[in-house]
Amino acid sequence: MPLITDPLFYALAIPAFLLNGISKGGFASGAGNIAVPIMATVIPAPQAVGIALPVLCVMDVAGLRAWWGRWSAREMRAIMPAGLLGIALGSLAIGLFTARGISLFLGVLTLGFLARGLLQRLRGVLPPPAPPSTPKAWFFGAASGFTSTLAHQGGPPLAMYLYPLKLDRQALAATTTVFFGVVNYVKLVPFIGLGLIDWSNLLTGLVLIPFAPIGVHLGIWMQKRVSDRAFYNVVYVLLAASGTKLVWDGLGG
Fold first, then answer.
1. Helices then strands (H, E): number in the chain?
2. What is the pLDDT of residues 106-134, one digit of tens each?
3. What is the CA radius of gyration of the chain?
4. Phi-psi region of 33 (alpha: psi -120 to 50; beta: other; left: phi over 0)
5. Is residue 221 within 8 Å of residue 213, measured between CB atoms?
6. Burial of 73 (0-12, 13-18, 19+ CB in 10 A)
7. Which one, 131, 146, 192, 205, has least CB within 10 Å?
């Protein structure tokens, strides 16, 4: 299969991966992966997923170097093995779930989480930091690995567990970035075995890879200079937009 040459594809994919790199760099790190749904408007979704993974892995190199050792060790001990379990389950489930079904499930879950937080704000009472919970960490960590394997959309489930903990912003960014860095490299094994990464996807990914570190370094720069309040406001707005888009796609919009 040849390299993708459609100019419209690159006009959409390049800014999408720049924005994705910003998230990988730690700014709005749970906002989700927008590159796949954007690319899927012009190419088949399975091909978009296959193209995205090598580019995401390159992004992860810069993210891992920037945030290595700054994660929450307590949370990482629970969510990392859960995420690996989710990858195994997702690899077995590929082909059993439709893209629309996954989108609808994720969108409803994300918007439900945001609605709960909005209701608390309207009541004028901001909840205290939630206590760590090993069962919740395993559930959401596994859900994140599962949905990341199916569609590179593991951000919302992980955010639902990590954000209520109100971790230090650098610990949150590091935990999220390193978690998905490990998850993406592990996913290479089932993706190659399932034929989701072929020569066409690799060649197309090579064209997009130079934009990966640019976006990551932009995210690192923004994360260090944006206030905590603005940081979380942006994250929640992006999650709301992502959740709405996922529901729309799931309903066939």
1. 11, 0
2. 678 777 777 766 776 676 655 677 788 89
3. 17
4. beta
5. no
6. exposed
7. 131
